[in-house]
Write a structure and sequence with these properties.
single chain, elongated, 2 domains, 185 residues, five-stranded mixed beta sheet, alpha+beta
């Protein structure tokens, strides 16, 4: 058989996993404030004269420490990941969702004017608009539109748009646009 007729199977190009970071300034400020409250409450508990006051401040310190370990602190150590077949949205213990590129329609830049008044920092579901906001700041935000409504959590309504804050909006748009196009999204 001739070499010209021999078929060489083509290997599909493997996509590299890319980390998509987000700003952590507000989570760091929240963690520092919680840590200061824990230290102050522990000091007040140690220097209290009465047992009731000491117990009260120990309970306050434990409760604030639990909140610190559950919410702002883990957000400092996580990031979003653009994998081979899906986008993994991670924001501490608050958000952990995988969205396949096939479910995405387009990604574009989004300006959030007055976002601090209506949305805030963290994960917010807006049922009226069908939008989920995954924000760590109000700058460098991108809008990810889905082909159809997607249920991210069992107890939350389905969404058709996800607003993300990222470190580099243009690079994120280029990356996700190419991934959406390559998977037929």
């Amino acid at each position: 058989m001739s070499a010209a007729l021999t078929r060489i199977p083509m290997q599909p190009e493997k996509l590299e996993t890319v980390r998509i970071g987000y700003k952590r300034r507000w989570f760091a400020i929240g963690s520092a404030a919680c840590a200061a409250i824990v230290v102050a409450a522990a000091y007040l508990a140690a220097t209290a004269v009465e047992d009731f006051t000491s117990t009260f401040w120990l309970i306050v310190a434990a409760a604030v420490l639990a909140l610190l370990l559950a919410f702002p602190l883990p957000c400092i150590f996580t990031h979003h990941v653009a994998g081979e077949r899906m986008l993994r949205l991670r924001m501490g213990l608050i958000m952990k969702v995988d969205i396949p590129y096939l479910a995405m329609r387009e990604i574009s830049r989004r300006d959030l004017s007055r976002g601090f008044l209506s949305v805030g920092i963290g994960v917010r579901f807006k049922q009226k608009t069908g939008t989920v906001y995954v924000l760590s700041s109000f700058e460098n935000t991108v809008a990810l539109k889905l082909k159809e409504e997607l249920k991210l959590r069992a107890w939350r309504p389905p969404v058709h748009e996800i607003i993300l804050s990222v470190e580099d909006a243009e690079a994120t748009i280029d990356l996700l646009s190419s991934r959406i196009a390559s998977t037929g999204g």
